[in-house]
Write a structure and sequence with these properties.
Blueprint: H1 16-24, H2 28-38, H3 45-55, H4 59-65
Helix pairs in contact: 1-2
Length: 66
């Protein structure tokens, strides 16, 4: 598994789904579909996405930290 950081390439909005896809070894499209389908269920999915967008470092910042 790789470090959890939002990539600079291959992201659509904030890069959260792309980061999670890289972390868990799936495609970004699969992760995006899972997220959209989960939004149909009750719960704070959108707020979680926003929180991860704010809290996850960008790929460049994560490299500088190491």
């Amino acid at each position: 598994m790789t470090a959890l950081a939002r990539p600079t390439n291959g992201r659509m909005i904030g890069g959260v789904c792309a980061a999670l896809a890289r972390r868990f070894g799936t495609s970004a499209t699969t992760m995006r579909v899972i997220f959209v389908l989960s939004c149909l269920l009750p719960g704070p999915q959108f707020l979680l996405y926003l929180a991860l967008w704010i809290l996850l470092p960008g790929e460049n910042k994560a490299r500088q930290a190491w």
